[in-house]
Amino acid sequence: MTTALTLPLRRLATIAAAALLSVPAFVGQAQAEEDEIRIGILAPLTGPLASPGQEMVWGHEMFWEQKGHTVAGRDVRLVIADTACNPDQAITQARRLVDQEEVHTIIGPLCGHEGPAVAQVGRETGLPILLDPAGADEITKWTRVPSVVRTALSASQIGHPFGDYLYNELGLRSATFIGQDYTFGHEVTLGAIQTFTELGGEVDELIWTPIGTTDYGPVIAGVPSDSEAVAVTIVGADRVRLFDAWFDFGMDHRHDIIGTYWLQEDALPQVDDRAVGLISNSLNYVAGIETPENEAFVEAYAEAHNRIPSWFAESGYTASLWAHDAIEAIDGDIEDREAFLDAVRSVEIDAPRGPLRLDEYDNPIQNVYVSEVQKRDHPVLGEILMNVPVKTYEGVSQFWTWDPEEFLERGPYER
Amino acid sequence: MPERGALTLIFVAALVATVPLFAGDFWVSLTIKILVLGLLALSVDLLLGHAGLLSLCHAAFFAMSAYTVAILQVRYGVPMLIAVPAGLAMGTLLALVFGVSVRTRGVYFILVTIALGFIVWGVTYRWASFTGGDNGITNVPYPAIGDFQITSMTAYFYVVLLVVLGCVLAYRTLVRSPFGLVLRGLKSSESRMRSLGYSPLRHLYVAFVLSGFMASLAGVLYIYFNRFVNPATAHFHISVEAVLMAILGGTGTILGPFLGSVVIMVLRNWVSGFFPYYMTLMGLVFIVTVLFAPNGIIGLVNSWRARRARRAKTTDAVGTEPEAQPRPQP
Amino acid sequence: MSFIIQTINGLSLAALLFLLSAGFTLTFGLMRVVNLAHGALYLIGGYVGLSVVWTTDNFWLGIVAGGFFVVVLAALIDRFLIRPTGENHLAQVLLTVGVAIVIADIALAIWGGDNLRVPTPEMLRGPIFLPGDIIYPRYRFVLILFGLAAAVIMWVLYRRTQIGAIVRAGVDDREMASALGININLLFALVFAVGAFLAGVAGVVGGAFLTLYPGVEWEILILALVVVIVGGLGSLEGAIVGSVIVGLIDAYGRWLMPEMSYFVIFAPMAVLLLVRPTGIFGQEH
C-alpha cells in the first residue's frame, strides 16, 4: 500500500510549508482590506475531534474556491480559529474573531457543548452567527438568541424519524437503545425513543455509556438476550470500538445492530466488510445521496482530499453556501446585520444534502436519510465502503410532527 | 526596603490598568482571563512554592464556586450578593474536605489530588439534571448589585484587577508572616519543624484550605467573566495548566504565576490564530524553560539582575524572593 | 455467565494496563522520574507500528517496530531532557508534559485526527468459543495471554535473576548499590529501555482495539497512573496487582453501575490512598 506510506510523508511536507507560510500570514494580518468580507470559522483543529474539524474547514474552503472567493462583487476571506473542542477556548476565539479580525459573521462551532458558549457571544455582540454543526437542541428551542441561526441540525431532529423507521419500516415492536452519555447522545437517543414509543414500541433496555469508553465488552453484555434489535448512538473513537466489540463477541449472531448515529464516512475506512449491509445512520447527509449536486460535491472532495466527505464536510460546505446566497440576496451589504439575518432566514438553498430553509425557530427544515453501508467502486478511491440512503424522510422539522408550542412545553430531552 | 516589593506590584497593576486605553475588547477580555487564571495559579503556588505540595485538583475549587454561583443565579434567581459568598463558601467547604490529602507527601500527594479532582469533574459531567451536563450552564446574568449592573468588558476588567490586586497583597502578607515561614520550613525539613514544636499537618491543612479559598475566588471572577460554565472548567487539564503557569513563571513568587499565565494564554488564544502548530510551540516553551530557566521566568530575570548588580550586597527580587530549587547534580 | 465474561473483560484491559504501567512504575522506582510523557510514548509507538503494519502487512513487525522506535525516542528524551533535571520533580512534570504535547502535536500533523485502528492479522480476528457457551473476542483473549506472559517474564527477571536483584537493590538504595560497584547508569538505561519498549508495544497492541487518536495519550496515562497508585509506585508486583484490580473494577463497575463509571475507579483509589498512601505494595520514597 504505497498510499499508506506516502500519506504521512506528504503531511510532513505540508507542515513545513504551512509553518513557513504562517509567518507572512501573521505579518500581513493587520492589513484587513476595506471591502473584503471576512467570515470567521470556529472548528476544533487539535484534540480528539480534530479530524471532523478539519473536514468542516475543507468543506468551507472548497466552496469558496469554487466561487473564486467572491460574492456580490466583494472578496471573501475565511478566518479560521481553533477551538480545541473546549468551550472556554471557543468563546475566547469567538471574541477574537469579532473584535480583532472584525469578521462579519461566524460559522461554527462543531462540538455540541461549544454551541451555547458561542451563541452567548452572539447575544453579547449582536454578530450574526450561523451555528454549524453543533447540535445542542436548546439553541433553536429554549434559549434562542436573536442573532444566532442554525444551518446544520438539531440533535433530536435526526432521532425522531429514526423511531418511525424502527417501527414502521423495520417492523420492530421493541428494541434496546445504547446512547453516548452526553447531551448530543441524550437528545438523539431520546428523540428516537420518543417517536418509537408513541407509535407503540417498547424499550427493552436503555444503556448509557460515557464518551471514551475504552471497553465495549461490558456495555454490550448488558443487552437483554431476548432483545431483537439494538439501536446505537455513538460518537468519536467509540464508534470503531463498539463495531469491533460487537462482532468479536459474536453479538451479530444474536441481535441486529442499527445505527441511529454511528458509522459516518470518516469511520468507514477503519471498519471492515462486516459493516456491509448495516443500517449506519439517520442523518441529514450521507455521501451516497444520488443527486447531481451531491455527486459533483463528492467527486470534487474525493479529488482534493482522497476521501469521501462526512456530514461535517458537507455541513461546512453548505453553511458557506448559505452565507453566500444570503449575501448575494442583499447585494453584498453584510454590514447590515439585520438584513443579512433576514436573508439567511428567507433564502432557500439547494445543497448537496437537498433543499433547505429555516423554520420560524431558525432551524433548517431538511431531509433526513436513513442509510446503509454498501461497498462501492469509486473512480478515485477504488473499492470503498459508503453510506447509501435506504429511506428518505423529506422536509423534516426539528419538531417532527408535533406542534412547536407543545414540544417546547414538554421540555428538553434529558436522561 | 521592605515595601519595595509591594510598590512593584502596584506599579505592575497600574501598567495593566492601562490595557483598555490602547487595546480592544479582545485584549481586555484576554487580560481578564490571564488575571483570573493567574490567580488560580497563585493559589496553587501557595502550596507548591511555599509548602512544596504539588496539587492537581485546584480546578475542582475553581469550578465548584463557579457552578454554585451559576446555579444559584440562573436556576434560583438568587442575587449576586448572596450567590458570591455562597460560591466562595462551597469552594472552601470542598477544600476543607479535600484537605485530608495533606496526610500524604510528594508524588503521592500529586496522585491523590488527581483522583479527587476527577471525582468533581465526574459530578459536573454526570449529574446533568443539576449541572446541565455537557452543555453546562449558560446566560449567567451580568454582575449586579441592586440596579447597578456591570455589562461592559472594560468595567469588569477593573473589578477583576482590583480584586486580584487586593488578593495578591493579602497573599503577600500571608507568605511573609510567621505562618509563611513555617510553611517554607516544612518544605525544607519537616522533621526539623516538628522537633521545633510545629504541627506539620495543621499548618499544611490550613494552607490547603486557604489555597482552596483563593481558587474559589478565581472561580467567582471567572463565572462573571465568561457567564457560562461547563465541565471543561473542572477538568484535570485546568489543574495541570495552573501548575504549569506557576512553574513556568517561577514558583514561590507572586508575579511568576501571572507571567506563566500570560505566556500560556497568549499562545493558546492569540498565537493559535495564525500559527497552526502552537501546541508544539507551547510544549517547546515548557521544555526550554526547564532546561535553561529551571526557576521559571522570574528566576531567569533575577539571575540576570544578580549578574548585572554583582557588586551590590543584596539583590532585589521581583515580587517576593524566589526560593532556590534544590538541584542535585545529575 | 455475565460474571465470567466481565471477568475476562477486566483481565484483557488489565493486560494492556500492565504493559503500560510496568515501565512507568519501574522508571519511577529506580530513577525517581515522574514521566508524564508515558502516554505520548504509547501514542507514538502505536502510530509508528500502524504505519509499519500498513506498509508491510505484518502485525508482529509492527509491534516490534513500535517498541523499538519508542526505545530510541525515550533514550534521547532521557539523555538530553530528563537527566539534566536531576531529581527535581517539578521540573520533570513541566518538562514531560511539554514533551508529551510536542509528540502529540507532531503525531496529529503526520497521522491526522482520525480514529485509526491498527489492523490485526486474520488469525486474531473474530470470536473464539470457550467452554460453557462463552463467546469471546479472540484478539482480546490472546492479549490476556500476552499480558500474562509479559508479567511472568518480568517477574522472573525481577525476582529470580542476578540482574533483577541488582535492579531491586537499586530501587531500595541507590547509593548503596552504587557503592557496591554496580554500574548504575547502565542499569538505569536497561530498565528505562525495557519500560519504553513495553510502552511502545502497548501502543500497537492497544491501538488494535482502542484505536489511536489525538487525546488518547492522556486517557491512557490517567489509567496507568491509577494502576501505579493502587499498586504502589516503584513496585513491579504493584503494577501487576494494580492492573488486575483496575481492570476488574472497571469491568464490573460498567456492568453493575454504569451510571457511576467515573467514581467507580477514582473514589476507591482516593480512599485507599488516604488509608495507605503508598499503595498496596509501595514503600516510602
How would you describe this protein?
Chain A is 40% helix and 23% strand. With 415 residues, chain A is α/β, with parallel strands linked by helices. In chain A, strand 7, helix 6 and strand 8 (202-209) form a beta-alpha-beta unit. Chain B has one domain (4-235). Chain B has a two-stranded antiparallel sheet. The longest helix of chain B has 27 residues, at 25-51. Chain C is mainly α and 285 residues long. In chain C, strand 1 and strand 2 form a beta hairpin. The longest helix of chain C has 30 residues, at 2-31. Chain C is globular.
Which descriptors would you attach to this protein?
heterotrimer; A: 415 residues; alpha/beta; Rossmann fold; 15 strands; globular; C: mainly alpha; ABC transporter involved in vitamin B12 uptake, BtuC; 2 strands; 3% strand
For the largest interface, the chains and their residue counts are:
A-C, 45 and 48 residues
Q: What sequence of helices (H) and strands (E) makes up the elements of chain C?
A: HHHHEEHHHHHHH
Structural category of chain C: mainly alpha
Mean pLDDT of chain A: 89
> Averaged pLDDT of chain C, please?
87
CATH superfamily of the largest domain in chain A: Response regulator
Write the layout of secondary structure elements.
The complex is a heterotrimer of chains A (415), B (330) and C (285).
Chain A: H1 2-27, E1 37-43, H2 50-66, E2 70-71, E3 74-82, H3 87-99, E4 105-108, H4 114-125, E5 129-131, E6 148-150, H5 155-169, E7 174-180, H6 183-199, E8 202-209, H7 217-220, E9 229-233, H8 238-248, E10 256-261, E11 279-283, H9 292-305, H10 311-329, H11 337-346, E12 349-351, E13 354-358, E14 364-378, E15 382-396, H12 404-410
Parallel strand pairs in A: 1-3, 1-4, 4-5, 5-6, 7-8, 7-9, 9-10
Antiparallel strand pairs in A: 2-3, 11-14, 12-13, 13-14, 14-15
Chain B: H1 4-17, H2 19-22, H3 25-51, H4 58-76, H5 80-98, H6 106-126, H7 128-131, E1 144-145, E2 148-149, H8 153-176, H9 178-188, H10 190-195, H11 200-226, H12 236-249, H13 255-269, H14 278-292, H15 296-308
Antiparallel strand pairs in B: 1-2
Chain C: H1 2-31, H2 38-56, H3 59-82, H4 89-111, E1 127-130, E2 134-137, H5 138-160, H6 162-172, H7 174-179, H8 184-210, H9 216-231, H10 236-256, H11 261-275
Antiparallel strand pairs in C: 1-2
Helix pairs in contact in C: 1-5, 1-6, 1-8, 1-9, 1-10, 2-3, 2-4, 2-8, 2-9, 3-8, 5-6, 9-10
